[in-house]
Amino acid sequence: MHLQREGLGAVRVTSNEAATDALRQNRYDAIVLDLGLPDDSAIALADFASYRQPEARVIFVTGGHAYADGSIFALSGNASAYLSSCVPPEDLAAIVGYHACAR
Q1: Quick one: residue 4, left, alpha or beta (phi over 0 = left, psi -120 to 50 = alpha)?
Q2: Could you tell me the pLDDT band of residue 8, with boundaries at 50, 70 and 90?
Q3: What is the CATH number for 17?
Q4: Residue 30 phi, psi dihedral angles, 5° rounding
Q5: Domain encompassing residue 96
Q6: CA angle, 23 as apex, 17 and 27 as ends, to 5°?
Q7: CA distance linking residue 80 with residue 103, whole number of Å
């Protein structure tokens, strides 16, 4: 995983259940969520993160045009960035590192 290669402590989960368990068990400075998850579950996970870890910064990535108007920042109070999933991995790592250190 590129974030780990860049020296960032990162955990990758592949289900909503695993994500909520990780948020219950660990503390995170930054969270990357894919807006392509089914049933708007990325928004639900961001809400859960804001409850469990209000200081964690959420970075949303998307492969589409959902929320391209910036409305994601109104829907999710802990949203710190909105990026295309096509962003180069090293750029994503730099943004995650920035937001993790900015808390």
Answers
A1: alpha
A2: confident
A3: 3.40.50.2300
A4: -140, 145
A5: 2-101
A6: 160
A7: 11
The encoded tokens of residue 76 equal 């999710």
Tell me the percentage of the chain whose pLDDT exceeds 90.
50
Q: How many domains does the chain have?
A: 1
pLDDT band at 25 (very low <50, low <70, confident <90, very high): very high
How many Cβ atoms are within 10 Å of 38's Cβ, its own excluded? 7
Sign, CA torsion 71/73/75/79? positive
Q: Are the beta carbons of 37 and 16 closer than 8 angstroms?
A: yes
pLDDT digits (tens, 9 = 90+) for 66-77: 788 889 999 888
pLDDT at site 22: 94
Chain CA centroid to CA 6, Å: 17
